[in-house]
Design a protein that fits this description.
Layout lengths: L6 H14 L5 H53 L20 E2 L28 E9 L6 E11 L5 H5 L17 E11 L3
Length: 195
């Protein structure tokens, strides 16, 4: 005898089939996969931005330490300045123009490394140039020098030849503060004559 399905018996059978169903349809699996990929790509982009920010902070910290080193070196030299005329050393240079504190590009420890490895290939480390500037103050401020230290480094540390174009006394005038190429930190300070 054939059973005629009524509306209620059909609904009960379809409910019992749904309750026992396990797994996902292909559409649900693809949708979940797409959501996961979007989430992971956002995490990877955030990770890359965090790494760039960390490298930038490291370079800025190194530049700050190098500027402090340069101020200390110039301050030490100012102890020998005891006459109205500045002679010798770095303070004997012409005023109101930029000069180079180091002949070669230096690392974060203010050490010039011309060859970074035994094979002569350069390791890709950030290099810095240290420049200084001073000008005599007159009148009431006689015996004081308005001074600045500028630490310069390339935005791209892979380009080792670029930093050599602005290091050394003969190249310091080549520096053009272009933010797309260079990063720099300038620290003002005052030097005084020690009678």
């Amino acid at each position: 005898m054939s059973k005629i399905l009524t509306k209620n018996s059909y609904i009960q059978k379809s409910k019992s089939w749904r309750v026992g169903q396990s797994g996902f349809s292909i559409v649900e699996a693809l949708f979940g996969l797409i959501l996961t990929m979007v989430g992971f790509s956002a995490i990877f982009r955030l990770q890359g931005a965090q790494m760039n920010a960390s490298l930038s902070a490291r370079d800025m910290s190194a530049a700050s330490n190098l500027a402090e080193y340069a101020v200390t070196e110039l301050s030490k030299e100012s102890y020998a300045w005891n006459t109205p005329l500045r002679v010798g050393g770095r303070l004997g240079q012409p005023p109101a123009v930029w000069h180079s504190l180091t002949e070669f590009a230096v690392d974060q420890n203010a050490q010039a490394h011309l060859r970074d490895s035994e094979q002569g290939t350069a390791l890709n480390r950030q290099r810095f140039c240290i420049h200084y500037w001073f000008n005599d103050l007159g009148g009431l401020y006689e015996g004081l020098l308005n001074a600045r230290v500028r630490v310069v480094w390339p935005r791209n540390p892979q380009n080792q030849r670029l930093i050599d174009t602005v290091c050394g006394e003969e190249n310091v005038g080549n520096f053009v503060d272009d933010p797309s190429t260079w990063l720099s930190l300038t620290v003002p300070f005052v030097l005084r004559r020690h009678p």
